[in-house]
Amino acid sequence: MEILRPSLINISGRVYRRNTIKEDQYEEGEEDDSYMGPPASEQFEEEEEFCDSHSIEQTDKGFSCAIDVPSVLYKYIIGRKGETRRRLEADTKTDIHIPKQGVEGQIVITGSQKAAVSSAVTRVELLVQSFRKKQPFTHFLSFALNHPQVQDGFLRFKEEVLEQCSQDHGVDGSIFQNPAKLHLTVGTLALLNDLEVTQACKQLQHCQDFIKTITEGKPLPLEVTGIEYMNDDPAMVDVLYAKVQVKDGSDKLQTIVERLVDHFVSSGLMVREWDRVKLHGTVMNTLFRKDASAEARGGRQNMKEREAFDARNILKSFGSYHFGEFDLSAVQISQRYSTDCTGFYTSAGLLNFS
């Protein structure tokens, strides 16, 4: 039962148990009403004794603490018609001051007792962390695979697949990756303001020591060879990917990836999705599929289910396809939608191996 295995939230090294709540308590109302937030009966239990991660300052009227919270998350603390904030203030006997919506700043909590302010800070942090998980990712940590040799191999792969397998269900040119955007995703990040982007870039630089230890300060020779699919049925595939491995057969790349994920998860900037990261470079994805009627509607895509494709013949004919080899020399944080002059995703932060 979930009540015996409640979800855990890690905030600045403290681990909390959260009792199960009903999702309908969080249904979105009108834009200016925002969200209800958790019911007053919901309790957050500390797994360990509370330890301040924020500075609570003594003032002439009591105590005060300022918390950095992205403006996009204010609505979850305010709640529908301000109900969540009022409930938090009543429960903790504090005042919670929130900047205007869309204005980046700090949420300031004041109260006559330090313990009350501390409790309110914890409650706000828990709300922020809970709803942060619901935000779409804005950036991703990745290795670029768009080396010229790999791009050339990919373009040959696309041409040959379309020549031999275009009659197979769902196979067409629109579902192939843009060769300039070929990459291996390490993990996704929801960075909700400029401060968080800066923090993520600093965390990436902190990974330099262990990466240099693993790579001995040299580029990592990789080969992109073979294809595989994500789901269980090769006749109904949404994502087909190229396999990426170190040329010497070592696990150095996998080790770097796992260490990167561990570091960003522990920093609170990434949510762990899998026990082990699957090394892959997407080459075909049904999310890329063009909607023939989109142009008539001003370019807007239908919100219909993805149309899978039959990959059986592709796997049979191209299962061991060799896309190319190159020396990997950097890992970067990229913006999800933005691209630079080369056609690759715009980099927010870069860490070179050497």
TrEMBL record:
Keywords: RNA-binding. One of its GO terms (biological process) is DNA alkylation repair. CDD domains: KH-I_ASCC1 (cd22419). It holds the Pfam family KH_1. GO terms for molecular function: RNA binding. The gene is ASCC1. This is Activating signal cointegrator 1 complex subunit 1. InterPro entries: AKAP7-like_phosphoesterase (IPR019510), ASCC1 (IPR009210), KH-I_ASCC1 (IPR047538), KH_dom (IPR004087), KH_dom_type_1 (IPR004088), KH_dom_type_1_sf (IPR036612). Residues 61-129 form the K Homology domain. One of its GO terms (cellular component) is nucleus. It comes from Oncorhynchus kisutch.
